[in-house]
């Protein structure tokens, strides 16, 4: 079966890891030989371990016959502490360098800052300019976790609230709008990882005529929300996570002596000596493939500019 060629920088470290998984990664040289306009997707990577997030997202963007050209973006008003400057210089760009261009899709990732007021985030003003820009320059924008909370707050004035303890683990979800193309092929119930200290209330989403609630969890709350014009998608969980990602966060927090409980429904037998099993992979691939197909490819103009 032919898998989507992801067009990325030839030297990006994630490329070899994806090739090792038999994911078809197209470098710039081969892409130029195909008479196909690739979907232009820009990823605003706000996560600390940027190379890990690159791998997570590129893997999911691979499950389609479409060619995708990736642009990696970081805030100009924030200095990353967990990713080398050499990596950022080699593979990332800033908003000022792309703001005159149009894109088929954009992904705004989460960030481990959800307990801070939005206005106190160092790059908040820059991010609001970018989110405003997406209204006219991006066909559809996919927001993840804190990025989803930030997007709902900026676009619709829906705030977040602190949880009594971290929402941490693998939670069962249910489809609310079964006929939504974004959920096409979903099981009635499916599993999703969550890792966050804040949440959003359901009531203001239901009350807003410009928003639709597509999926939720009895335990983890609101999961997928979209704007009625399909230009903004908000996903509060981390479907892109690998099997071991929550374990890495769990060990990190324990080593820092932070108040952290074992992830719910994650380690087999609730024993953290057991290797975690990925129970959400198929849902994650379907979610991103549906977004690319129904909300980007089928509605984006052929001539972007």
From TrEMBL:
The record marks 114 as: Important for acyl-CoA specificity. Pathway: Amino-acid biosynthesis; L-methionine biosynthesis via de novo pathway; O-acetyl-L-homoserine from L-homoserine: step 1/1. The active site is at residues 145, 238, 240. It catalyses: L-homoserine + acetyl-CoA = O-acetyl-L-homoserine + CoA. It is found in: Cytoplasm. Substrate binds at residues 166, 195, 252. SUPFAM superfamilies: Class I glutamine amidotransferase-like (SSF52317). One of its GO terms (biological process) is L-methionine biosynthetic process from homoserine via O-succinyl-L-homoserine and cystathionine. GO terms for molecular function: homoserine O-acetyltransferase activity; homoserine O-succinyltransferase activity. Gene3D superfamilies: 3.40.50.880. One of its GO terms (cellular component) is cytoplasm. The record marks 195 as: Important for substrate specificity. Keywords: Acyltransferase, Amino-acid biosynthesis, Cytoplasm, Methionine biosynthesis, Transferase. It comes from the Bacteria. Its EC number is 2.3.1.31. Transfers an acetyl group from acetyl-CoA to L-homoserine, forming acetyl-L-homoserine. PANTHER family: HOMOSERINE O-SUCCINYLTRANSFERASE. Belongs to the MetA family. This is Homoserine O-acetyltransferase.
């Amino acid at each position: 079966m032919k898998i989507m060629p992801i067009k990325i920088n030839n030297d990006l470290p994630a490329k070899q890891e994806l090739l090792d998984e038999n994911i078809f990664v197209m470098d710039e040289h081969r892409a130029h030989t195909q008479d196909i306009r690739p979907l232009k997707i820009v990823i605003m990577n706000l996560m600390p371990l940027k190379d890990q997030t690159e791998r997570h997202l590129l893997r999911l963007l691979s499950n389609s016959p479409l060619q995708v050209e990736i642009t990696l973006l970081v805030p100009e008003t924030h200095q990353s502490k967990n990713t080398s400057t050499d990596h950022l210089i080699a593979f990332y760009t800033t908003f000022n360098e792309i703001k005159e261009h149009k894109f088929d899709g954009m992904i705004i990732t989460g960030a481990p800052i959800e307990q801070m007021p939005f206005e106190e985030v160092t790059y908040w003003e820059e991010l609001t300019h970018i989110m405003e820009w997406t209204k006219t320059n991006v066909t559809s924008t996919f927001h993840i976790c804190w990025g989803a909370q930030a997007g709902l707050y900026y676009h619709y004035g829906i705030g977040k609230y602190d949880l009594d303890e971290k929402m941490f683990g693998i939670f069962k979800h249910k489809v609310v709008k079964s006929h939504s193309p974004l959920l096409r092929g979903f099981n009635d119930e499916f599993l999703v990882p969550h890792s966050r200290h804040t949440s959003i209330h359901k009531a203001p989403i239901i009350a807003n005529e410009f928003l639709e609630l597509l999926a939720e969890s009895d335990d983890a709350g609101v999961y997928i929300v979209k704007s009625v014009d399909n230009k903004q998608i908000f996903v509060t969980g981390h479907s892109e996570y690998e099997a071991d990602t929550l374990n890495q966060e769990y060990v990190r927090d324990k080593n820092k002596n932070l108040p952290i409980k074992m992830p719910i429904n994650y380690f087999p037998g609730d024993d953290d000596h057991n290797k975690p099993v990925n129970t959400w992979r198929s849902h994650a691939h379907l979610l991103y493939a549906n977004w690319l197909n129904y909300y980007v490819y089928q509605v984006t103009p052929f001539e972007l500019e």
